[in-house]
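Quick illustration, no need to memorize.
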Amino acid sequence: MKEIPVDARVECTDGPCGKSIALIVDRETRRVTHFAVEDESLRYAPYQRLVPVEHVAETTPGLIRLKCTRDELNQMPPFIHTRYVVHESEDYSLYEGGGGAGGPGGWGTGSMAGAMSTKVEEEQVPEGELAVHPGTQVHATDGHVGVVEELMIDPDSAQVTHIVLRGGHWWGKTEVQIPLSALERVEGDTVYLTLDKKAIGKLPVIRR
C-alpha cells in the first residue's frame, strides 16, 4: 500500500513547492482524486493549489514528490477561494480616554455604525467529494479516539483502504490503521466510525 501523507513536504521536479494540507476523496469510489498543496512562494495568490493525484511520482511518510514543475503547479486550480461579505457593523465608540473636547484634553465619546467586510475562505472541493485534513477529529461509537494522520491507498486500484488514526487514549499514544469500511459518515470536520474503542484497540499498529 502507498501512503498519501498530509502536512508533508512537497517537491516538484525543480525544487521544493510547499506542503500538503488536505486530501480530496471521492465519496463513492473511495479514490483519492486530488490533494491540496500550499506554497506561499507561488507567484500570485491564492497560494493553495488542487493537484490531481496522477501528478504524484512517489511518497514517504513525510514527503510527496511530484512529476510536474513549479510553473506547472502554479497553473493548477486554486483550492481556496476568498470572498468578502459586507455587513453593517454595530455601534462602536469613537474614542474613550483622555484628550479632546469631551474630557480632559480628549475627543470625548461617541459612536457610529457603518459597512464592514468579513473575509470568508471557501475550499473548492469537487461535487461528490470530501476534503480530509490533518487533525480531522475521529469518533468511535463510544467517544472521541484521536485525529486523522494520513490515508493509505492501494497502488493498483487507487482506492483508499485505511485511515491512519493518531490516537492518544487508553490504548496508548500510537498510530492505528482503521479500514475505510469502518467509516460510518463524515460530518463537518469529524469522521464517525462504526467501531468502539475496544475494537479499535485490537487493530494493527503502525511501526515507524
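The radius of gyration is 23 Å.
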